[in-house]
Amino acid sequence: MRRRRSRGQALVEFAIVFPIMALVTLGLLDLGRAIFTYNTLSQAARQAARVAIVNQQTSVVRSQAIRSGATLGLATSNVDVCFKTSSSAQTSCASPGTDNCPRRARDIGCLAIVRTHINYAPMTPVISLFWSSISLSSTSIEAIEYVCPVSPATTCT
């Protein structure tokens, strides 16, 4: 007699717990995707900065970042490249006219700054209700080791 009364109890408990478990699982998948996106952005910024320390042509540096972040679909608008003097307090390309290191004054010791950024969109519907887009970015700063000569005797491509 006792078995018959508790027959649907497991089904009711499952119906209560399953949505919570599904949300936690999908949230963990979203967290993993966000970490992958951030790591890829960081790697793209590092690889582009490595190019920038020996070749200061911004188009070449941007294309290296785009190639390194190919899985994210980075575009030139997602990559900022600038050069600052070694004594600069700035660590971003937000105001390129301040403390920058123009091509004619660029020398060994100037800083190459590469910033990659993208808007991450969560795939979990409940999370995307709260955060429809999350801005992720990574910046890499390296000192110039070799100054790319200007034309006509350029060896940097």
Outline the structure in words:
The chain has 157 residues and is of the alpha+beta class. The mean pLDDT is 86. It has helices at residues 2-5, 9-52, 58-68, 125-130, and strands spanning 79-84, 111-120, 134-143. The chain has one domain (2-143). It is rod-shaped, with a radius of gyration of 24 Å. It is built from four helices and three strands; from the N terminus they run αααββαβ. It starts with a helix and ends in a 14-residue tail after the last strand. The chain has a three-stranded antiparallel β-sheet with strand order 1-2-3. The longest helix is centred in the first third of the chain and has 44 residues, at 9-52. Helix 2 runs antiparallel to helix 3.
Layout of secondary structure:
Layout: H1 2-5, H2 9-52, H3 58-68, E1 79-84, E2 111-120, H4 125-130, E3 134-143
Antiparallel strand pairs: 1-2, 2-3
